[in-house]
Amino acid sequence: MTNRRHLVIPGLIVAVLSLIWDLLVALVLHIPPGYATTTAADQTVTSQVFAIIAGDIGMAVVAYGLYFAILFSRQGRTAEPQAGVRAPSNVPLQVGWISSCIVLVMFAAGFGVVELEGQTDPALVVPASALASGAQHHPFIVQVIGQQWQFTYRYPQYGGFESQQLRIPTGRLIQFDVTSLDVTHQFWAYQLGVKLDANQGINNIGYTYVASPTIINVRCGELCGLWHGYMTDVGSQAGEALAPAAFASWLSYAEATYGPETKDLPKFALTYYPAPVVWG
Amino acid sequence: MSQTAIASGRAPVRFSPRRLFLTQNLVTAIIVGIVVGAVAYWIGAQLDTTDNGNGGILLGYLVGSAGFLVTLGFANDVILRLRGRPSASIVKTAESKGWTEFFGISLDHKVVGIQFGVAVVLMFFLAGFQAMMIRTEFLFPNGGGPWPAGQYETLVGLHGLLMMFVATLVIIGAFGNYFIPIMIGAKRMAFPRLESFAFWLVPLGALIMYSTIFAGFGGGFPTGWWLYAPLSVEARIGMDGAIVGFAFIGIAAAIAGINLLTTIFVMRAPGMTWSRMPMFAWAMIAVEFLSALAPPVLACTLMLVGFDRAVQSSFFEAGGGGSGLLYQEMFWFFGHPEVYIFIIPAFGVVLEILPVFTRKPLFGYRLAVAGMLGVSLMSWFVWNHHIFTSSVAPGLRPFFMTATELISIPTGVMFLNMLGTLWKADLRLKLPLLFALAVMFNFLIGGLTGVFLSDVPLNVTLHDSFFVVGHFHYTIVGGEIFALYAASYFWFPKVTGKMLNARIGKWHFWTALIFFNTTFLPMFAAGYLGQVRRSPVYAAELHGLNVWISVNGFLFGLSNLIWLYNIVYSWGFQKERAPVNPWESRSLEWQIPTPIPADNFPRIPTIVSGPYEYGPGTTRPIAEWPDTGQIPTPAPAI
Amino acid sequence: MISDNTAATGTLRTGGRAHSPEQVARIPLVGTWLFIGADFFFFVPLFFAFFFLQQANVDHMWQPKGIHPPNLGLGVAVAALAVVGILVAHSGLRHLQSQRTLASFTNTGRLAALLLVAAVVVQIWQLSHVGYGIDSGGYASCFFAMQIVVTIQIGVLALWVLSLANRAGYEATHPIAMPGPDAIEEVATPISALAYSYQMFALFLGAVVLLAWVVCYFL
């Protein structure tokens, strides 16, 4: 009887705390990166689900551990010390514990795989509500080029002009082609929920779909040398996702302004190398 | 030698300049190492056809290290063997040479254990001081801290790499070397010379790594502890020391792994069956398979980086046909087993301590063993989760995500062991147990946040953010370093004959636990809010959060000074001697006198029962002691 | 090999003053197996780099114009010398292991060491006459790194075999006494145990030499 009581009391505490925590996570807390894009929304929802599961498990383990530690300690409040009962290994408990772990893990893995598909398959990145507009057929391509210590952006569908600021349109499938001229960088567009490594000689592709206009903070996430910390595009020079009309006007301005410089750049390519060494 | 010196096993040490400068000892080794290294540097610089100077520096470090180790005496036995003589007897362990033994090659695993402990704890405090400097930078937004622009990355590199050295070897090196032979009833390690060799690589590697602070502007190396190529190929000369130092630690870890595994497999006392082995020994088996096999991958990878730097091979530079992704793959193939090299010893310490202080058998002994071996095995199949965003093998991401989440199953077993052992126990909330419970609490948070990171879509937003920083500090500091605290309170009386002061210890426990959590818990929020790791620049709205983290970080740093004070005070100034077996443990190391005889056991005992048979009705002793014919009474059941 | 220790020590129910000769003999065996494991993992990045860079062929720099696998003849010579040396060492060590041919291993061992050293010398000659350097693209890097590491290990094996040959010669004239049942001192590591361990490492290295040869010259 007392045994059961010692299992039920912490269980009740956990139940109450879990309920509060779950409601907090689901309804009150605003978990970044928010809902500006489909990828970001995926991450926010996944965070909520994982926070609920992990929080509940964590609280259960802590509650039982603390309860046992206090209850069974010699300085504790137990009237009769339950001195050293030989612990049978309680095989059903072990099997039950491992089985529930497996179930949880399989749920998390399945959940992750489904979400992953939704982020990497261009057809799935575009939300169902926008499919009718044909947004998934012609991705808007931005090439992100990392170098020590800045990002530049090329727009291959518009003559390959190059801009220092990231501008993308809302309501279209966006495809990022990320590469680097020198060391490994990482293109992290925070509000978009996009993070792609920029590697020398590698074209790293990612997708997103921006639902509503937003500021975009871009930071380099991969240690790329002494001024890594300063490789950010935030504040007044921040990137932006613009509504189609505003974007069109920026595009015509940018093409006219930066376009002429393009002829000084190397021809657009998926990756860029230093001048080839001639052998023999 | 006088009678008293023989009786105490300590030979009197007489000073003479001749002995200091003309024999193989630490002083001559340092002198020869520096001279030979300088000559090699000069020769290397002459041979080097490029102007980057890396060839000479690498050659200087390597040849200087070889000179140091040979002069210290590591070649003596090799030469003996080459001449066809059987190697010198190891039985000399029984003779102690006094304090000088701690500054040379010792074949006594207890001396090497203390050498490891002292050296690594010193490194821990040095690297910890760097952490304080890093947090000082965060008191000011936008990189406006006290360190010159660009120096921040150097601090991160020194802190990260030195802490890697610490975390790799602090429990394995100090407590593994000291206690494993005693726990399994052995008189010595399987390879005592290699054991000492592994130790001397550690201060050598740390010094070489640290010498890079003198390398020109800013000093150090800009790559953090990952040494990611191609940055590590292109970086300035400070990089060379980082490569050599890290490779030395890798070699030391591999040697320590082979040595401890062989010791446990071969040297066990009669009757020490697999099911009678202490959990700490099982943890060492689980971890040493990783430690023996993973660091060679690192050593080879760093060798290739060295080739790229010194002789312009092209493994990692795309311009010459190499690839940075190749480095990332090879590094994390080592790197993920490496992080379990940190945490499995912590499991071992916790599971070793739990039964002693709950006075009941460990719940699910076999399951715990299976869990640790399972973690050890599965840690080979998860490395790609460090590079989910790197474009390496995107098709494999679901596999690595699932594998990473699966590893939480054997890890979760530890929590069942803990809860099951606490259930209806006769708890004594002494400091070792408090710290062991704190390990489980911290590791719970570290483990659960690890599941967040294993999920690819979430990893996209959290990777390389402060979330990751919080996560791995929860596992390494909250897990392993707290286990180091637990182990230090638990085993200190056996090593030094003095108890660590309990009152100071309580202060240490509460300050460490509270300030550790107040420091690292907010980092999860900082990561979610977009703060990039390894960057002194953060968004203005995160200033308050960062000041909070910094202040609490300083307090956590101070709590470590309480620990240090406790060690110094209790070891040096406390008069009262500790009982032989203060915790009434059944494990073998507590059944022998303190200080432990130089050869551990006059005769090897025969083990007759398991280590955790606590509780009423237990009358079986753990071992029979043939020398005295006396069967010590088992720890009383209270 | 990794068996329960109770079984290994047989009827020994009381511990000795020192570790038993059986235990001492098993130390190099277990240690060598683990060392082979570690060494295997040391080679993993070299082979991995070869196939990774070959597949990636970044910027067409895997084998730039004019860079080909070097002359097969020298490659065959190096591999053959090394493998024959290893086989000679192996057969000698097998006999030595059974303690029957203590004195004859002096010569067999020295012959094997000589063959291995010859392999090293030919290799050095080859590497300095390839016609290009380690800095000539991906293939050249992998080729040089792999061959250098393999060659260093062949050299180390030569020294090990030589040390055992010398030991055999020494023991033929200075037999090592077996300690009594309750000896305080441990027995020196028996030559048979070392012979077994070096055999295992020699076989492993032979396999690596052949693999590196196939990879470098044919793939």
If you had to describe this structure to a student in words, what would you say it looks like?
The complex is a heterotrimer of chains A (280), B (638) and C (219). Chain A is an alpha+beta fold. Chain A has two domains: 3-71 and 103-120, no CATH class; 131-264, Cupredoxins -  blue copper proteins (Immunoglobulin-like). Chain A has six helices and twelve strands. Chain A has a five-stranded mixed β-sheet. A four-stranded antiparallel β-sheet of chain A has the order 7-6-10-11, with no helix packed on it. In chain A, β6 and β7 (194-198) form a beta hairpin. Chain B has helices at 3-8, 17-22, 26-47, 54-74, 76-82, 109-137, 151-183, 192-210, 231-234, 238-266, 279-311, 324-358, 365-378, 397-406, 408-422, 431-454, 456-462, 466-496, 502-528, 543-573, and strands at residues 606-607, 623-624. In chain B, strands 1-2 form a two-stranded antiparallel ribbon. With 638 residues, chain B is mainly alpha-helical. Chain B folds into two domains: 12-94, no CATH class; 110-572, Cytochrome c oxidase-like, subunit I domain (Cytochrome C Oxidase, Chain A, Up-down Bundle). Chain B has 20 helices and two strands. Chain C has 219 residues and is mainly α. Chain C has a single domain (19-54, 70-175, 184-218), classed as Four Helix Bundle (Hemerythrin (Met), subunit A), CATH 1.20.120.80. Chain C is 72% helix and 0% strand. Chain C has helices at 5-8, 21-56, 72-97, 102-128, 137-173, 191-218. In chain C, α3 (72-97) runs antiparallel to α6. The longest helix of chain C has 37 residues, at 137-173. The chains are: A alpha+beta (280), B mainly alpha (638), C mainly alpha (219). Chains in contact: A-B, A-C, B-C. At the B-C interface, α10, α11 and α12 of B face α2 and α5 of C.
In short:
The complex is a heterotrimer of chains A (280), B (638) and C (219). With 638 residues, chain B is an all-alpha fold. Chain B has helices spanning 3-8, 17-22, 26-47, 54-74, 76-82, 109-137, 151-183, 192-210, 231-234, 238-266, 279-311, 324-358, 365-378, 397-406, 408-422, 431-454, 456-462, 466-496, 502-528, 543-573, and strands spanning 606-607, 623-624.
